[in-house]
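<discrete_fold_record>
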Amino acid sequence: MATAQYKSQSEFGRRLKALRQARGLTQVELAERIGGTQKMITHYENRVKFPPVDIIPKLAKALKVSTDELLGAKPFKDDELVRNKNLMRRFRKFGELPLRDQRALFHFLNVLLKKSNQSKNGTN
């Protein structure tokens, strides 16, 4: 019975998981943002058709999408999610680098961001 329930109720869970991952959040981080637990998020991603009504706006806000996008009534912007997901995937990989390399990477990123901000402000 649990398998049939899982299969019939997984669309919301797949969407929730995709949005969470695209935002670079772990289940624990998303749970903290909505005042819940990692176990709740796991349950929402794997077992339920929809979470309780009062949780839906909290999830949408934490994931920076509308409730319609979260619930599947409106498609979410795939291009933004793919771009963010690829970026977040790379940052997770960077976290596996030795600390010395991570520091060098952050220094490089800070230099690029500073240069970009100067260009935008016309202060080259």
Summary: The CA atoms of residues 11 and 92 lie 26 Å apart. The helical segments are 2-8, 10-22, 27-34, 38-46, 56-63, 67-71, 78-94, 99-121. Residues 1-9 have pLDDT under 50 and may be disordered.
